[in-house]
């Protein structure tokens, strides 16, 4: 681990990012040209103290999961992300496989979407990056570990993951998850190991997987029963990369009422961020809804 080089790299990258690039208002009293440390901490889901220690070369070796969060927060390119991992004493993540980081271009598109919830997913349904409105709507899905990283795994094994979806929509969504996963697995040379573990854990998944339905999900309508603003109905549009390895999922309000509730959620998130950054302690990432 090259602590001094890592500290310099993180500090310089932070100073080059304008707040507007990551959806943060600059404000009239702002003196810092780039991001503040507490803003990086909020975007990466870590404490301000740890960001300070990293930039001062006093930290312990960061984990690969933490480095991935920093890479997303600082909008690093693929080359910069690999450099970050090397400085921290880790091998950069592979270009292929299940555990990947969102492509830098897709992360920049998340920023450009602003107040429209959007997220980047792998072809197998692992959430790789979210913009702030997506976190407010669904919770932070990028910090999960193990098989819980996959939306389909949580859907079939965790009641809380299904609780935000109205009961009458759950069978349809379950079938869509499995059919889309079938299509993704068919494009790969081998079947991911988590599928066997999911078959062992869920009778519903075994039933649907055995039916061998195949359908790539390109568009959909989904309802969220959000604990703070009530039901939000969104239209989901999926854009895929040329190699079909990653996809950008954009969620737009399906009606005027859902648009108003998303706006209310955005305002609540801004107030929450102002409260957490003005007091002592580490800011937490916004979003309190159950994942799913």
CATH domain topology of the largest domain: Beta-Lactamase
Q: What is the radius of gyration computed over CA atoms, rounded to a whole number of angstroms?
A: 19 Å
Total domain units: 2
Q: What's the number of helices?
A: 13
| N→C terminal distance | 36 Å
Mean pLDDT level: 82
Work out the number of β strands. Answer: 5
Low-pLDDT regions: 95-99, 273-292
Spatial shape? globular
Strand order of the largest sheet: 2-1-5-4-3
User: Any idea what the CATH architecture of the largest domain is?
Assistant: 2-Layer Sandwich
* Backbone structural class: alpha+beta
Helix-strand sequence: HHHHHHEEHHHHHHEEEH
The CATH class designation of the largest domain is Alpha Beta
Give helix % range: 40-55%
The percentage of residues in β strands lies in 5-15%
* Main beta sheet: 5 strands, antiparallel
């Amino acid at each position: 681990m090259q602590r001094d080089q890592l500290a310099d790299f993180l500090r310089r990258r932070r100073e080059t990012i304008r707040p507007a690039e990551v959806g943060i208002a600059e404000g009239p009293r702002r003196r810092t040209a780039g991001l503040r440390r507490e803003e990086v901490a909020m975007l990466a889901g870590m404490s301000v103290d740890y960001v300070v220690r990293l930039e001062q070369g006093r930290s312990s070796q960061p984990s690969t999961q933490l480095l991935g969060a920093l890479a997303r927060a600082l909008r690093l390119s693929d080359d910069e992300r690999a450099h970050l991992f090397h400085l921290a004493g880790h091998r950069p993540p592979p270009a292929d496989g299940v555990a990947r980081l969102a492509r830098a271009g897709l992360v920049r598109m998340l920023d450009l979407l602003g107040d429209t919830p959007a997220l980047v997913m792998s072809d197998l349904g692992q959430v790789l990056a979210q913009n702030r409105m997506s976190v407010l709507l669904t919770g932070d899905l990028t910090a999960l570990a193990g098989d819980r990283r996959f939306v389909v795994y949580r859907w079939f094994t965790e009641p809380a993951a299904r609780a935000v979806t109205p009961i009458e929509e759950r069978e349809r969504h379950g079938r869509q998850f499995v059919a889309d996963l079938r299509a993704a697995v068919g494009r790969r040379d081998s079947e991911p190991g988590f599928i066997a573990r999911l078959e062992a854990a869920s009778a519903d998944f075994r039933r649907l997987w055995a039916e061998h339905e195949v359908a790539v999900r390109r568009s959909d309508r989904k309802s969220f029963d959000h604990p703070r603003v009530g039901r939000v109905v969104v239209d989901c549009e999926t854009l895929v990369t040329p190699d079909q390895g990653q996809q950008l999922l954009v969620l737009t309000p399906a009606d005027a009422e859902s648009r108003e509730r998303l706006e209310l959620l955005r305002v609540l998130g801004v107030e929450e961020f102002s409260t957490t950054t003005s007091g002592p302690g580490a800011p937490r990432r916004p979003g309190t809804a159950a994942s799913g």
